[in-house]
Amino acid sequence: MTEISITGNPHRNGFVLGHPHFAVLENICLQKLNLVDDSILGVKFNPFLRYGRKENCLKELNLSNNLLFDSKDRYVFAFCAFKHLKIIRIPREVVKDNRVKRSTKDDVSYSFCLPRTLEQLDLHSHVKSYFRRRVANLTIINGSNLKVLNMANVTVQDCNGTVNGIENLEYLDMSGFNCKLLSEHLLSNFPKLITFIAQDAKLGIGLKSLQTASEFFKKNLDLQHIDLMHNSLHSLPDGLFNHPFRHQISIILDKNNLQSLPNFPSKPNTFQQISLKYNKLSCFSDDNIAKLNIIKPASVFLRGNPIECSCKTLNFLKWVHRSGIIGDVDEVKCVLQNGTLAILSHFLRNLKTFEISCQSKIWLMLASSITSVIILAVIIGIIYYRYRFAFEYFFLRIKMKLRHYQPLTEEFNHDAFISYSHKDIPWVKTLYDKLNSKGFSLCLYHKDFQGGMPIAECIVEAINSSRKVVFVITKNFLESSWGTYEIEMTRMHAFREGRESMVIVILKDDIKKENLPRVLKEIWFKVVCIVWPSDSEAPYNSEDMFYEKLCIALSDGRRKLCDDNTSNL
Prior knowledge:
Blueprint: E1 3-5, E2 16-17, H1 19-26, E3 32-35, E4 42-43, H2 45-53, E5 60-63, H3 72-78, E6 87-89, E7 109-113, E8 120-122, E9 129-130, E10 137-141, E11 148-150, E12 154-155, E13 162-164, E14 171-173, E15 195-197, H4 203-209, E16 225-227, E17 249-252, E18 271-275, H5 286-295, E19 299-301, E20 307-308, H6 314-323, E21 333-335, E22 341-343, H7 344-348, H8 351-386, H9 388-402, E23 414-419, H10 425-437, E24 442-443, H11 445-448, H12 455-464, E25 466-473, H13 475-478, H14 481-497, E26 503-507, H15 518-522, E27 528-531, H16 543-555
Parallel strand pairs: 1-3, 2-4, 3-5, 5-6, 6-8, 7-10, 8-11, 9-12, 10-13, 11-14, 14-15, 15-16, 16-17, 17-18, 18-19, 20-21, 23-24, 23-25, 25-26, 26-27
Antiparallel strand pairs: 21-22
């Protein structure tokens, strides 16, 4: 007889395994003993220890954790007595105990013994159990042959330590550990580790806290399988996999919070498979795609991600279709532009048609953008043309301020600036001579404008430095573009300085009001209009009366009034 299994018996028929039972076992070269699923009520420690010390053939022992009486640690040390034991399975069934004590100085360093021949130790729990010890400086005696250690859901208080004595370990499952506190040397003493499983171990916090993340896997160059599922990972720290691994790695990063490809090193043949299921990936960016083209994994798995099938992700979709690297493309669902779901593989069958429609949309958007820009430019152009003189006036004012120009506040250099057409110079010369003889200082652009200075700046400066602006409106003036410009500049200045009464208009050539420039008609109710006599026989319509009116208009606001004597006019 090489195997005994006592399983599935109800408690009313149960018994406690003691001296009589182990005495029977001592006479049998038993290789496998199964005592699981509440088949017996318990195992007494002393008979169990005596059985281990006796010569026996037992190679595999499966026990329910609740069968062990007294301190469970005593049973662990009792295992040292077995000489041929290779497999121990003691699944824990302890649920959360809120009375668990805080770790103390006593558990900073501790050790326990295993059978020298032990190759597999399984202490996993189907539900989370809470263990008060820490992974501090743990030493395992006689653990040199241990290759498999399964402690899934045995939730130790932290992972801030090292484990010694199991240097040949190949498989480690520490799922459910509380690794918020994580040592970068936790795995340093497992140089032959092939499989590392740490699901739901709070590594999202622990890995982020490492000062030198490159030290974590530095000694584990034989790694082939890594499972970091359900760790709330948003990213992986720099340098974590930047090592010369001897084999390609299959890594599982399912059920995390990844929104892009993790920070893998850009080295070919590093990863065999990359599983990114049930994360928050909508697509791979161009940089992610370039990195995957360098890494060249055999497969990438994306099921359960909110993959987006739209024109915005077209490059990603084309890469998926071309590379064939997505291993579960038939199971991946993507969100279409209308909000519905589609199987990614089905969508990729019509990718060419979709690409053409995207290009049409791009051209449509481009055309719309160009049209919008043109319309905006036209509107701006119309606004600028409508208010071009206002813009130019203020630009000139700013330009003059930058040149430290200081406008006069009370005194003016001239009584009036005369605006006229150059074709009317003879008549304007006569006007100038008669007014100048009466003490009026007049500014004429032929006489007073500075050479080398832009004419627009000269006009603005002449308007600023004159008490009045006199427009000589003739047919020649109406044909001149500079005349309209000077009227606009005068209006802007009068509006800005509150000098609405500064404009005097002299009408010649029988010009009617309706023929005047629009801008002049807009301020007509505020200007002083004096008509040059065209009919000498009409009463009160002589040159003397004209000059008398002009003299009065020019004297308005002048400190020194002109002489009322107009006999010389």
